[in-house]
Amino acid sequence: MAAQIIDGKLISSQIKDELKEKTALLKEKGIEVTLAVILVGDDPASEVYVRNKKKACEYIGFRSLSYELPAETTQEELLKLIDELNDRKDVDGILVQMPLPAHIDEKTVINAISPSKDVDGFHPMNVGALCIGEKGFVSCTPAGVIQLLKRGCGGKIDIAGKECVIVGRSNIVGKPMSLLMLRENATVTVAHSRTKNLEEVCKRADILVAAVGKAGMITKNHVKEGAVVIDVGINRNEDGKLCGDVKFDEVSEIASAITPVPGGVGPMTIAMLMNNCYEAALMHMES
Ligand code: GUN
C-alpha cells in the first residue's frame, strides 16, 4: 500500500493560523511581537529565505525589522548592531541569516546574540539547555519534524519507544533532532558518513529522518516496511528540480507515511521560527 503523505504545507499553515490568533490576543493587551532579521550580502537563496520570513511575520501580525547590510560590512559593525538589538526592549527575536560572508566568523556572531532572543536556537546556551532537558529555544527544522510527527496522519504516529534513525549529524538538524527524539522517548541512532552498513542501520528504523543533503541517497533498501520517513533534504537534481534525500517514488511504496519535497519539512522551519518568536515575546513579557 502506498504511504500516507504528511503534508507540511497544511500543518505549517495550521501552526501559523494558531499563532495569528494568539498574536491578536497579545495585541489587545498592547504587546507587539518583534523579530529583527539581519541579512549580510546578496546571496540569492538567503534573500528568498529572508523575504519568506518577513512575509510570515506580516501574515501572523508580528512586526519585523529588516537590516539588509552590504557584503563589505565588518564583523565589528555586525556585532555592534546585534548588541544594540540585544539591548532593545522592543525586540523579541534576532535572526542573522546564514551563511555570512567569509570574513565574518559565524560562531562569534551566534555567540553574540542574547540567548533569550536567539529564535534560531543556535546559541550554545540553548543547545546546552536542549541537551539537559531545560527550557530554551530549539533549532527550527528539527522542532518542525517533531510537529509533523505529532500532527501528521491524524496524530496517530507514536514516537515513544520507537526505533528512530537519523541520518546526518549537523549542528542545525541531526544533533538537535537526536536530542528531541530522545526527549520524546524514542530509541535513537545517529548515522553519518562514516557509519558502516548504512542500509542495515536505517532498516532498523520505525522512524527514519534523512538529513544528509544528498539527492536521493535513501532508497527502498534503507527502509523497513511500514516505517515513517521524514525527508529533511532540499537538493537540486541533474535537471535542476527540487528533491529530497529520499527516493520518494520507490520509498513511498513501502513506508507507511512520508514527507514530500517540496511541501514537507521545508514550510515547517518558518512556522517553528514564528513559534519561537511568539515564545520569546511571552518570556520577555514576564521578565
Ligand atoms: N540559513 C539556512 N537555514 C537557516 C536558518 O534556519 N537560520 C538562519 N539564521 N540561517 C539559515
UniProtKB/TrEMBL annotation:
Its EC number is 1.5.1.5, 3.5.4.9. One of its GO terms (molecular function) is methylenetetrahydrofolate dehydrogenase (NADP+) activity. Pathway: One-carbon metabolism; tetrahydrofolate interconversion. Residues 139-283 form the Tetrahydrofolate dehydrogenase/cyclohydrolase NAD(P)-binding domain. Keywords: Amino-acid biosynthesis, Histidine biosynthesis, Hydrolase, Methionine biosynthesis, Multifunctional enzyme, NADP, One-carbon metabolism, Oxidoreductase, Purine biosynthesis. NADP(+) binds at residues 168-170, 234. The keyword Oxidoreductase applies. The keyword Protein biosynthesis does not apply. InterPro entries: Aminoacid_DH-like_N_sf, NAD(P)-bd_dom_sf, THF_DH/CycHdrlase, THF_DH/CycHdrlase_cat_dom, THF_DH/CycHdrlase_CS, THF_DH/CycHdrlase_NAD-bd_dom. Residues 6-120 form the Tetrahydrofolate dehydrogenase/cyclohydrolase catalytic domain. One of its GO terms (biological process) is tetrahydrofolate interconversion. GO terms for cellular component: cytosol. SUPFAM superfamilies: Aminoacid dehydrogenase-like, N-terminal domain, NAD(P)-binding Rossmann-fold domains. PROSITE patterns: THF_DHG_CYH_2 (PS00767). Belongs to the tetrahydrofolate dehydrogenase/cyclohydrolase family. PANTHER family: C-1-TETRAHYDROFOLATE SYNTHASE, CYTOPLASMIC (PTHR48099:SF5), C-1-TETRAHYDROFOLATE SYNTHASE, CYTOPLASMIC-RELATED (PTHR48099). Catalyzes the oxidation of 5,10-methylenetetrahydrofolate to 5,10-methenyltetrahydrofolate and then the hydrolysis of 5,10-methenyltetrahydrofolate to 10-formyltetrahydrofolate. Homodimer. HAMAP family: THF_DHG_CYH. This is Bifunctional protein FolD. The gene is folD.
